[in-house]
Design goal:
mainly beta, 4 helices, Maltoporin, Chain A, globular, single chain, TonB-dependent receptor, receptor, Beta-barrel_TonB, iron, 5-stranded mixed sheet
């Protein structure tokens, strides 16, 4: 839904709707909090220094490590369940590429070479690869979700906001834990950590996480189940303190997801206006009915990923009020993926579509930052460098249609930026904040596409071998010939220069009430589309930078003797050259369009009496996406629609009760859930890719020992076995099918944790 007269309601909405549109900052209560009946202080590093979250002029959702455990959130893609305003999903349901949207700001292109406008950071280091962004979450101190442009301090692609994963750090005291979980579909998960002092000045911590489960996607044709899970993770940390003015931290991470069966989606017939009710089999096998997560597929698809990263953070105190910080990081991610595979004649069945891809991407980043303060002034300034170098291959096969296209692409990104932010206390209760970042982004791109039999060349001749002249149509300029006859290769480079800004005012009305408001600009560089089907026009290969102008007004408050907390925010976003994702044939394209968004969020936390904890959140979003091309030559556009991954309404809640026994042990019962309104998964506003509204419920029962050394719990997730969409595709233009991805079914589990 879009406002009828958007220009007339911008200021009215921003100033007048704060009481009705709200921002959520949940967190499950600790045993101490439930006993004291007061809301604990949450410390965050949203401005690259430690602060009480209630003192930061940013809409933030902070989830503690304990809250993540009790909510069963062990992957970044699951965060949307307890962060209103955040939509997190994966296009194949198996973590192939992670997609995040904050307040409607997203780019749901699943191309591995693309970067999203919602940045993901792990311990201060940017993760550019969408293949690695859906990180496994284990042994974390907390997760911070910052809403709104964060371009000044974080810079890289934080147009819509960012997600920070912050690990538990090494400790001087020897400590650790072991956690075992068993569950539905033969789930077996092991998590653990060991921390302590190695010498007087050197601390260490090692953390591990291993997760295995059978698949819940049924393939009657092969008898193998898809969406299975196998993930092995390790993190090693060292903290060296050579003096009381210097700290040097090393972090090494390793993730291995061996090749797993990952059937991508259910396919259903479609007219282009709506999905059919009956499930359609691409291979002419019997109809499976309307059962979700079930599809006859000629051969099993798969997914395998491996990633490693290393970072060195050095912090040096200069004088009494200044710190210099250096963060150096290197990472690599490799991925292999295949979906809906089966070649002509394979066991007598013919596949209509096969896609196989590989990724090998390296990154290096370096940040140098100075933080300093005086009585009334706090500032930080620095420089940032990023290098991303990736090789990508895509093998797309249409045995029943046009044949096969092989793509080898590479992209090198080099980015420099200079940034600074200043906070000045005008009075004891009023603070002004200004900041800016200048960014230059250089990309070198090459795309080599070849076609193979039974592809048809321009004369209609069926080709028996790879043919290098089938690749790129020219622009739609009538003065140009229809086809450019060049050897299947496209090379280009681009240089984008962008500026981001922020200007805010903080008013500390009382010790427990903060009012803030201001303006921020976010920006994301332009880029390239991979010509994945051999029939991509030259004009479609590039897209321009996008800019987002954002206005926000918010209130953070505590009252009722710190037993209640209410945070409210309202915002208005105006996009220029919004990078919209569309699907042309089977080629995923990003093109520039126009967009607006406005809305708000609320967080309410209550601890009314000993043993009780409640939190509830609501996010309201009204967006409009326009000027999206409906034809390959741009002569027609789709009607205005909601932006993708932008439900008009989302909500989530937690209710928890704890009882303490005479032996000192305690029993907790927790019920939590979330609601997501209907939403679009593509800018091709045909109705085929619209996900229905859904509600999910979860429940957990846990017992804690008197000294908190061990705990045991049982849980059920998706209590009502709700069928809901995680993603959807529009394949109507070449196959008459709509493809749907459904979320996991009801899931039972039991967990035991021992701390020492």
């Amino acid at each position: 839904m879009a406002f009828k007269n958007r220009k007339d309601v911008k200021i009215a909405m921003l100033l007048g709707s704060s009481s009705a549109m709200l921002a959520f900052q949940p967190g499950s209560a600790s045993a101490q909090q439930l006993t004291s009946g007061q809301i604990e202080e949450v410390v965050v590093t949203a401005q690259k220094r430690e602060e009480n979250v209630q003192d930061v002029p940013i809409a933030i959702t902070a989830l503690s490590g304990q809250a993540l455990d009790e909510l069963g959130l062990d992957n970044a893609e699951q965060l949307g369940a307890q962060v209103p305003g955040l939509v997190a999903t994966s296009f194949s349901g198996g973590g192939t590429v992670s997609l995040f949207s904050i307040r409607g700001v997203s780019q749901n292109d699943f191309g591995d070479h693309q970067e999203g406008p919602v940045a993901v950071y792990a311990d201060g280091v940017y993760i550019p690869s969408t293949s690695a962004a859906g990180a496994t979450m284990y042994d974390l101190a907390r997760v911070e979700v910052l809403k709104g442009p964060q371009g000044t301090l974080f810079g890289r692609n934080a147009t819509g906001g960012l997600i920070q994963l912050i690990s538990n750090k090494p400790t001087e005291v020897t400590e650790g834990y072991v956690d075992l979980t068993v569950g539905s579909y033969n789930q077996f998960t092991v998590e653990g950590a060991l921390s302590g002092a190695l010498t007087d000045t050197l601390l260490g911590r090692i953390s591990v996480f291993s997760d295995n489960a059978d698949g819940y996607f049924k393939n009657p044709l092969t008898g193998n189940d898809g969406r299975e899970r196998e993930s092995h993770n390790a993190r090693v940390q060292l903290r060296w303190m050579p003096s009381d003015r210097a700290t040097i931290d090393f972090v090494g991470r390793y993730t291995d997801n061996p090749r797993q069966i990952q059937h991508a989606y259910d396919a259903r017939p479609s007219t282009g206006a709506a999905r059919g009710d009956a499930e359609f089999d691409w291979f002419g096998n019997p109809d499976q009915g309307s059962e979700p997560n079930k599809q006859s597929i000629a051969a099993d698809g798969y997914l395998g990923k491996r990633a490693d990263s290393y970072e060195l953070t050095a912090a040096f105190d200069v004088g009494e009020t200044a710190t210099i910080t250096s963060i150096s990081a290197y990472g690599n991610v490799q991925k292999e993926y295949r979906e809906v595979d089966g070649s002509a004649g394979w066991e007598g069945r013919i596949s209509q579509y096969t896609l196989s891809s590989t990724v090998d991407q390296d990154q290096f980043s370096q940040e140098l930052r100075l933080n300093a303060s005086t009585d009334k002034l706090r500032f930080q300034t620095g420089v940032y460098y990023l290098l991303i170098d990736g090789d990508f291959s895509i093998d797309t096969d249409f045995p029943a249609f046009a044949g096969r296209a092989l793509v080898d692409a590479s992209q090198k990104t080099e980015s420099w930026s200079v940034f600074g932010q200043l906070e000045y206390d005008i009075t004891s209760s009023l603070t002004a904040i200004v900041g800016a970042r200048w960014v230059t982004d250089e990309k070198e791109y090459s795309n080599d596409t070849r076609c193979a039999a039974p592809s048809i060349n321009l004369t209609g001749e069926v080709l028996g071998e790879f043919y290098d002249d089938c690749v790129l149509y020219s622009s739609f300029d009538p003065a140009d010939p229809l086809i450019v006859d060049f050897p299947g290769a496209f090379k280009d480079d681009r240089d984008d220069t962008m500026d981001t800004y922020t200007a805010k005012l903080n008013y500390q009305m009382t010790e427990d009430v903060l009012i803030y408001g201001g303006y921020s600009r976010g920006a994301k560089a332009g880029g390239y589309n991979i010509a994945g089907d051999g029939f991509t026009y030259l004009d479609e290969l590039t897209f321009d930078p996008e800019e987002l102008d954002a206005w926000e007004l918010g209130v953070k408050s505590k009252f009722w003797d710190s037993k209640a907390q209410l945070n409210v925010a309202a915002f208005y976003y105006d996009y220029s050259n919004y990078q919209a994702f569309t699907f042309a044939g089977v080629t995923n394209l990003v093109e520039n369009a126009q967009a607006e968004a406005q809305g708000g969020e609320i967080e309410l936390v209550l601890t009314p009496s000993d043993g009780w904890y409640f939190s509830a959140g609501l996010a309201f979003l009204d967006t409009e996406l326009s000027d999206v091309a409906a034809s390959r030559d741009g002569s027609a556009t789709y009607p205005s629609q909601d932006m993708v991954l932008s439900p008009n309404l989302s909500a989530n809640w937690i209710a928890k009760k704890a009882w303490t026994f005479g032996n000192g042990g305690s029993l907790d019962i927790q019920v939590d859930g979330n609601y997501v309104d209907e939403q679009e998964y593509s800018a091709n506003a045909t109705g085929v890719t619209q996900g229905d509204a859904y509600t999910l419920w979860n429940a957990r029962l846990a017992y804690y020992s008197s000294n908190d050394a061990w705990e045991a719990s049982v849980y059920v997730r998706n209590l009502t076995d709700e069928t809901y969409h995680a993603y959807a595709f529009d394949f109507v233009s070449f196959s008459g099918l709509a493809a749907e991805v459904f979320g996991p079914p009801r899931w039972y589990g039991a967990q035991v944790r021992y701390r020492f």
